[in-house]
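User: Let's play a game. I give you a shape written as tokens, and you guess the letters that built it. Ready? Here's round one.
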């Protein structure tokens, strides 16, 4: 069995690959895993170093927008797990072109190749941000897509193309929409690793606006277990929300990170709010719980303590990357 993992050198994809090759998903214990990744600023072979010598792992350096390359590696793939994307909202505000070409165009190219090669399952990894912003309650999967940033709009576009390849051609596609992830190997431009690496270095952290924007934080391992359940048992054509972490305002999150690193509020610098900043995200995960038996396992207090300790110990990993983080940070 061969699994093609796009974007497997990024934060979540590399966690999936390390887990899969480490035996965490018994159904794929004997699978060959091929990672196809462009190694943009967000992708790094250092994320895959723990599995680099395993015979069932292969890395292919390339672009999901390259038809010949995609055709070459789709051939022989039984399952596609599609993580590759431009993923940082702030970057999509300063320049959206790569977001549209990779997230929408790249996804379409993969879907077409998967159709031509008769792939058995295509899991399109998406985000709860496609639903927009919600003041009260939580989104179920049938909620309309009302994305607000160029990032989430491009992801919503890719979700619709993925859905269309199922409805039109019967391609066995599943879509997952997950809440905010945290954990080791997250590029130090996203809020948790940005704040941690700043605080470890004695630098202030930039808190957007009034700090009352709310996110549901899920450990990356819980996300990847949800993706695995969908890959194995998800019904073709269906969308599954993944979440069930801990809802926190950015102020609350900041307070926890200050405490965990032995700092106080003097280390916080309020900055002008992000343009179009969504106020609150919240997914309803009843469907994946009832249909596939999903439940998050990692308590936030434990997950964040492990994450803090990982960033404290892995300066060798994050220091070279921080120079490439979004320029205004
Ligand atoms: P990431 O930015 O850390 O990694 C993205 C990876 O895709 C990188 O390795 C990059 O090199 C690769 N890539 C980018 N463009 C490519 C291209 N044209 N061809 C081949 N590879 C390319 O992102 P992440 O945080 O790991 O997110 C992975 C997926 O999960 C994304 O689709 C994202 O939308 C989704 N998601 C992320 C979160 C989150 O909190 N990070 C939450 C829900 C969903």
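Assistant: Ready! My guess for every position:
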């Amino acid at each position: 069995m061969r699994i093609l993992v796009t974007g497997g050198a990024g934060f979540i994809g590399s966690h999936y690959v390390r887990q899969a090759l480490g035996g965490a998903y018994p159904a794929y214990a004997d699978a060959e895993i091929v990672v196809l990744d462009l190694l943009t600023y967000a992708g790094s072979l250092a994320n895959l170093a723990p599995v680099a010598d395993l015979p069932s792992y292969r890395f292919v350096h390339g672009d999901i927008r390259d038809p010949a390359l995609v055709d070459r590696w789709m051939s022989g793939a039984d399952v596609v797990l599609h993580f590759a994307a431009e993923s940082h909202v702030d970057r999509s505000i300063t320049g959206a072109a790569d977001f549209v070409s990779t997230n929408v165009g790249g996804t379409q190219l993969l879907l077409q190749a998967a159709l031509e090669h008769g792939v058995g399952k295509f899991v399109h990894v998406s985000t709860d941000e496609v639903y927009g912003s919600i003041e009260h309650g939580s989104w179920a999967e049938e909620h309309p897509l009302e994305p607000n940033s160029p990032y989430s709009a491009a992801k919503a576009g890719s979700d619709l193309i993925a859905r269309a390849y199922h409805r039109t051609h019967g391609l066995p596609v599943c879509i997952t929409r997950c809440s905010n992830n945290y954990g080791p190997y997250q590029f130090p431009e996203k809020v948790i690793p940005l704040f941690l690496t700043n605080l470890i270095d004695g630098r202030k952290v930039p808190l957007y606006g009034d700090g009352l924007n709310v996110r549901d934080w899920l450990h990356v391992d819980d996300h990847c277990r949800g993706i695995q359940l969908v890959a194995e048992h998800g019904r073709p054509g269906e969308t599954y929300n993944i979440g069930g972490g801990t809802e926190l305002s950015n102020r609350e999150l900041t307070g926890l990170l200050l405490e965990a690193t032995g700092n106080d509020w003097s280390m916080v610098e309020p900055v002008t709010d992000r343009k179009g900043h969504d106020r609150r995200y919240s997914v309803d995960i009843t469907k994946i719980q009832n249909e596939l038996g999903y439940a998050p396992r990692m308590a936030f207090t434990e997950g964040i303590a492990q994450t803090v300790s990982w960033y404290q110990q892995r300066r060798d990993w994050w220091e070279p990357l921080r120079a490439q983080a979004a320029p205004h940070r």
